[in-house]
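Notebook B, p. 112. Complex prediction, attempt 2.
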Amino acid sequence: MEVNAEARRILAVSISKLYASRTQRGGLRLHRSLLLSLVMRSARDIYHSSRESECQSSEERMDTSSDPEEGQQQPGMPEPQTTLISSEPAQEEPDSADEECEITEDKENLSPTRQSRKRRGKASAAPDFLPIKRARLEPGEERYAAPPSCCRSGAGDSLIALSLNRVIPPPNIHTAYECLHKPHR
Amino acid sequence: VLLERDKRGVGRTDIISTVEFNHTGELLATGDKGGRVVIFQQEIENKSQPQFRSEYNVYSTFQSHEPEFDYLKSLEIEEKINKIRWLPQKNAAQFLLSTNDKTIKLWKISERDKRPEGYNLKEEDGRYKDPNTIMSLRVPVLIPMDLMVEASPRRVFANAHTYHINSISVNSDNETYLSADDLRINLWHLEITDRSFNIVDIKPANMEELTEVITAAEFHPHQCNTFVYSSSKGTIRLCDMRASALCDKHSKLFEEPEDPSNRSFFSEIISSISDVKFSHNGRYMMTRDYLSVKIWDLNMENRPVETYQVHEYLRSKLCSLYENDCIFDKFECCWNGNDSVVMTGSYNNFFRMFDRGQRRDVTLEASRENSKPMQVLKPRKVCAGGKRKKDEISVDSLDFNKKILHTAWHPQDNIIAVATTNNLYIFQDKVN
């Protein structure tokens, strides 16, 4: 679907912009980060809704016997990323998007493997997939597996998964994140 | 509006980040990315002649801000000058406020054209005399010298902004000014640097609930209790400081409903207001968003009274403009002296003027290649699609690296200052 492809492309572009903005002089620009996250949210919503309609159309094509593997094919890509991205402010709970797909999967009588949908509530603990405490990758090194909290599948998602896994966060991401969330005295 | 071009290409290596005339228009200040301020002074060649040409020459250059480092947050603070605002002149010296992302400074610019000579205890070169050699006493006298313009920092207003300062505005009371960052607006007294009052705070208790930021703020030109601030959502709030100490509740909210047919991924970005300016008469205000300029009557909140499309042909290109970051460009806008014409910049070194009364608009170009000094500027036209006429430029051949973000209009005369990336152009009306 063209809209789907465009939404994915915009998401990929946005993520790279977000990472680039973390290393620029002058620190994170709140306004720019906010606008980026708004675009990403729109793109993610479009992507989710187009995937949902894909799910529904593929469901129609299927026989009554449900295929357990179908459930693995989740739009896993946007969710952890949106929360990653939303270490910037203006984060919307991704649960609403999840619910749409959950309904689809319930129809298929599956118990899908869910990513961690830990609510990023009042406690401003760092999200578990934000690679703050990970070891820095040496050049040429690769991560041996995707973290368990992120279910990635599908060739189309690998591009974005790639950009997440390969980027080595600069040292001040954690500091910048904290400074946006700490109450200021 | 026919313009005679008086090129003032400065050819500086640093990117101009702000341009501002003073209240008489005699002085023009520019700030750049390197933290420098350059002030030009108008020198009227021959007032008695009907066709006089005024030139702006460099008057003073000084380093206003230096790069700093915030050790607590491990962040560098850029020295780029975000805004300059002149104070109305009270005595022989000129004063301006210049700000970077975190610190505002009050600079005094004064002229010195005399120096003292004939000290008793010092030689002319400053060395102290041996007191035993002094046999007589005299009074030092002031003798003329070459004009020297000195800039000295008189006040430093620091440590009041957690986020990046985007605006400063001097109050009509001439005693206070405001500074605005993404989430807060502070009120300062020009004499007091160790504290400021917070008058607007839109920071949510939980930063994850943040939906909009402050993008610009300005005091009303005559009512010292009134100011406006614009947001990234395309709204403008007018606040009255008499209502309460914290002006979180607006007195008026100016917002135009979104046109649903124009909805896209980028609707929110392009509705973000990049500049807000009151008209000189204080009855209107102008806002600039990515594609248009809107004029609002302060008495009508539900829609602008006039809307001018700056470069509507870019609407279909928003995705590319997002990828090359141009969609985040913050264009400024300005009024002419009698509020009849408004001006704003665009890409390809184009700038646009909209004559409100005559309902005419023109696109002009600021570039060395396409016009010579003293030449009347030729109106330009962008071809949005279809057949391109001769002399038109197609949208695809526009240079998006050549952007005019900052423009200023002389408060009384038809003289404008237009900043391209590295150069400042000064144009004036042809006098016949």
